[in-house]
Specification:
This protein has a five-stranded mixed β-sheet. A hairpin with a 2-residue loop joins β7 and β8. It has a domain at 72-257: Sulfite Oxidase, Chain A, domain 2, CATH 3.90.420.10. Helix content is 24%, strand content 23%. It has 269 residues and is α+β, with helices and mostly antiparallel strands. The two termini are 29 Å apart. Bound molecules: the ligand Nc1nc2c(c(=O)[nH]1)N[C@H]1C(S)=C(S)[C@@H](COP(=O)(O)O)O[C@H]1N2 and molybdenum atom. Molybdenum atom (MO) is lined by residues 86, 140-142, 231-232.
Length: 269
């Protein structure tokens, strides 16, 4: 069995599980279209036709994208000799300084919101969960790329620990840094993704980079890797994960620090 398979509960095949789940996600609107897609989806010509059909719902389009789910993975020899840091390179708060001094022994990842069992996880607890290593290319919207090796726990594992409650649709990442210094904290970095990307097998909470602990400049002790989207979605310095039914209530209402400043929420590569 593929240990990275996102759906492996009971006797249900991954395909059935995904269909049921996506059908629920479509909340009725796209359900009819989805039922049709399931029968046709293995035919590439049909895929192409469907992809171009404007009347498809968002959920059905995501079902098609799920047919080519993995971002490309590379080999050790492809690793970039230099992987630059971008945005914040160190949160400038007393709390973060204290965490750094203890080498993150006192760090806790909070998981709350629409979950059955809110969590407060130490780095050791996160490292004790299933681990995954992947070598992928990071693409920043500013026009640079770099290939790095990431080690971390699949976000799906952490979400399963907490257990999603009905109504859960988004996973919001709260970060320790303020990219823009403000009096009211509105410059704090945050991001959000939907459940399809949250349960993607390459979506990790990474604590390791290129075979070492995640460096401060790259988001220590924990950062998101979501490999089919652009650099600004890869939230660094994650301190809290909130499961929610919406993100309009947060920040500028667009789902992320850069989204609030005009960037796309879905930053597909
Ligand atoms: N918390 C936080 N996460 C962040 C940023 C940031 O400034 N703060 N910058 C984003 C951008 S635009 C990019 S390209 C990547 C850069 O990751 P790196 O520093 O590991 O290269 O982090 C993203 N995640
Ligand atoms: Mo970026």
């Amino acid at each position: 069995m593929n240990p990275n398979a996102p759906f492996r509960k009971g006797a249900t095949t991954p395909f059935q599980a995904r269909r049921r789940w996506l059908t629920a996600l479509a909340a009725g609107a796209g359900a009819a279209a989805l039922a049709g897609c399931d029968r046709l989806v293995h035919d590439e010509r049909v895929d192409a036709t469907l992809r171009s059909a404007e009347k498809l719902t968002f959920a059905s389009q995501r079902l098609l994208l799920a047919q080519q789910p993995l971002a490309r993975e590379y080999g050790e020899r492809d690793l970039s000799p230099v992987f630059r840091s971008n945005g914040s390179s160190r949160p400038e708060t007393a709390e973060y300084d204290a965490l750094l001094r203890s080498n993150f022994a006192d760090y806790r990842l909070r998981v709350d919101g629409l979950v059955e069992r809110p969590q407060s996880l130490s780095l050791a607890a996160l490292k004790a969960l299933r681990t995954r290593v992947q070598i992928t290319r990071h693409d920043c919207v500013e026009g640079w790329s770099a290939i790095g090796k990431w080690q971390g726990v699949p976000l799906a594992q952490v979400l399963d620990l907490a257990g999603l409650r009905p109504g859960a649709r988004y996973v919001i990442f709260h970060c320790a840094d303020e990219l823009v210094k403000t009096a009211d904290g509105s410059g704090r970095y945050y991001e959000s993704i939907d459940l399809l990307d949250a349960y993607h097998p390459q979506t990790l909470l990474a604590y390791g980079m290129n075979g070492k602990d995640l460096p401060v400049a790259h988001g220590a002790p924990l950062r998101l890797r979501i490999e089919r989207q652009l650099g600004y979605k890869q939230a660094k310095y994650v301190t809290r994960i909130e499961v929610a039914d919406a993100f309009a209530q947060l920040g500028g209402g667009k789902g992320g620090f850069w989204e609030d400043r005009g960037y796309e929420w879905y930053a597909g590569i």
